[in-house]
Specification:
alpha/beta; FAD/NAD(P)-binding domain; seven-stranded mixed sheet; five-stranded parallel sheet; 7 helices; Ferredoxin-NADP_redctase_2; Thioredoxin reductase; oxidoreductase activity; FAD/NAD-binding_dom
């Protein structure tokens, strides 16, 4: 049996970090998934004047303060991308590439998903469309696979899949020097639509088409509705109450993913509430045992 945490936090922006601080203070066994570089969006702010106590700092300056704080609290960020989360009754199973994590409760602090789904992406999810190429690559041994990569990390997944696939295409959604194996065909074009019958068989691009058995879309983050089956979404955000509870028992959410305004101080406050609500939830299930 794998290690089971009290709380798993998905996201390392202000909401996720604030939740982690409070989980730590309440002595809960928790894990936080994200990036040790924290939020890319945070660093881009030229100046922040609406965060109490942080007047005149740049986003980079606030990020440095956040990093100092979590370091002082001995909080480590686990750099794994969570691809799916399943409610299993007494716990949640969090799937990350070749690993599975378990937690009695979860806090979603994934930020806002800025990339709209490709036409047909949601329709063919699980029928040729996936978000983890290394997980599902063995299913497409000797077949044609297309990878749409939104970041440099996607190149490593493409290289791995190229060992198994018969033919592989890589479509980068960013500009850079690409570190790809010789047997990978680079296509610099914009994906428009995924089509098929019972499963994927073609990807339509702006200037071309690809006949393909699978399309893996490797984004920085996956929209919450796709990440957690059964999660209630309203107007493209996770539906929560004032205690940051979602419609799934033991699942909480905070930050930009639950709605506007998209502000750091609002996210941090919601992360605090989500952690306190998760602690209360844990106490209630422990009493009922």
């Amino acid at each position: 049996m794998s290690e089971r945490y009290d709380i798993a936090i998905v996201g390392s922006g202000p909401a996720g970090l604030s939740a982690a601080l409070n989980a730590k203070i309440r002595n809960k066994k928790f894990i936080i998934f994200g990036n040790n570089n924290l939020s890319n969006k945070l660093a881009k702010a030229p100046k922040v004047n609406n965060y109490l106590g942080f007047y005149g700092l740049t986003g980079e300056g606030i990020k440095e303060r956040f990093q100092e704080h979590i370091k002082a609290m001995d909080i480590a960020i686990t750099e794994e991308r969570i691809n799916n989360i399943y409610a299993m009754g007494e716990y949640f199973a969090l799937m990350a590439n070749d690993k599975t994590f378990e937690a009695k409760s979860i806090i979603l602090a994934t930020g806002i998903e800025y990339t709209k789904p490709i036409e047909g992406e949601e329709k063919y999810l699980g029928r040729g469309v996936g978000y983890c190429a290394t997980c599902d690559a063995p299913l497409y041994k000797g077949k044609t696979v297309t990878i749409i990569g939104y970041n440099k990390e996607a190149e490593a997944e493409a290289n791995y899949v190229s060992e198994l696939a018969g033919e592989i295409y890589y479509i980068p959604m960013y500009k850079d020097k690409y570190n790809l194996r010789d047997n990978i065909k680079l296509i610099e074009d914009k994906p428009k639509e995924i089509i098929g019958e019972n499963k994927v068989n073609k990807l339509i691009l702006k200037d071309s088409e690809i006949l393909t058995d699978a399309v893996f879309i490797l984004k920085d983050s996956i929209s919450p509705g796709q990440l957690v089956p059964g999660l209630k979404i309203e107007e493209n955000h996770i539906a929560v109450d004032r205690l940051m509870k979602t419609n799934l028992p033991g699942c909480f959410a905070a930050g930009d993913c639950v709605g506007r305004p998209y502000q750091y101080i609002k996210s941090a406050g919601e992360g605090n509430i989500a952690a306190l609500s998760a602690v209360q939830y844990l106490d209630s299930i422990n009493k009922n045992k």
